[in-house]
Amino acid sequence: MTHRGLRLDVAVSSVIAFTGVTFSVLGIVQYGVWENNGPGPGFFPAFSGALATITATLAAFRKHRQESARLSWKEFSPLAAAISSGLMVSVIGMTAAMTLFVLAWIRLVEKRSWRSAFIASAVTFTLVNILFAQWLGVQFPDSLLNTILPSGS
């Protein structure tokens, strides 16, 4: 799709590549990639930023492109879901927001059964907590609900 000579696919790929470079640089310079014989806080941003940059650059310079089709609102649903999940992190916490994201994605985008969606989101929640919270000791962002609701002690 073009607009005044600008190809939308190249523009989007360029923005993704720039964002990937930004995440990689911040991950490496500001947070540190490797600390105390293990991944540091900048490992995931640096790795995912580099991966996004490489794939976006390849997509931008791909020689054989198909004709771009008109975009409908459905093409923006993954972006809306990601933004919604990001906003929910501060309200219900990161693990709960990402669990709901996986549940909704599998049910609504992948069109799987509710049973499959619940199983996949429960397995994802469990594995993320075992891997990051227990094994690596990563603290996930807390929720506003923990500050609003009275504690049991």
Describe the fold and architecture.
Helices cover 66% and strands 5% of the residues. The model has no long low-confidence stretch (mean pLDDT 78). The protein is built from 6 helices and 4 strands, in the order ββαββααααα. The protein is mainly alpha-helical and 153 residues long. The longest helix is centred in the first third of the chain and has 24 residues. It has a two-stranded antiparallel sheet. It has a two-stranded antiparallel sheet with strand order 3-4.
Summarize this, please?
With 153 residues, the chain is mainly α.
Task: Considering the chains and any ligands shown, give keywords for the structure.
153 residues, mainly alpha, two-stranded antiparallel sheet, 4 strands
Secondary-structure blueprint of this entry?
Elements: E1 2-3, E2 6-7, H1 8-31, E3 34-35, E4 38-39, H2 43-60, H3 77-92, H4 94-109, H5 114-135, H6 144-148
Antiparallel strand pairs: 1-2, 3-4
Q: Main β-sheet, in a few words? A: 2 strands, antiparallel
Give the distance, in angstroms, between the N- and C-terminal Cα atoms: 59 Å
Q: What overall form do the CA principal axes indicate?
A: globular
Structural class: mainly alpha
Output the radius of gyration.
19 Å
Q: Assembly type of the shown chains?
A: single chain
> Helical amount among residues, as a percent range?
55-70%
Major sheet strand order: 1-2
Number of helices: 6
Q: DSSP strand (E) fraction?
A: 5-15%
- What is the average per-residue confidence, as pLDDT, rounded to a whole number? 78
Give helix and strand order, one letter per element, not per position.
Answer: EEHEEHHHHH
Please report the total strand number as a whole number. Answer: 4
User: Which spans have pLDDT < 50 for at least 5 consecutive residues?
Assistant: none
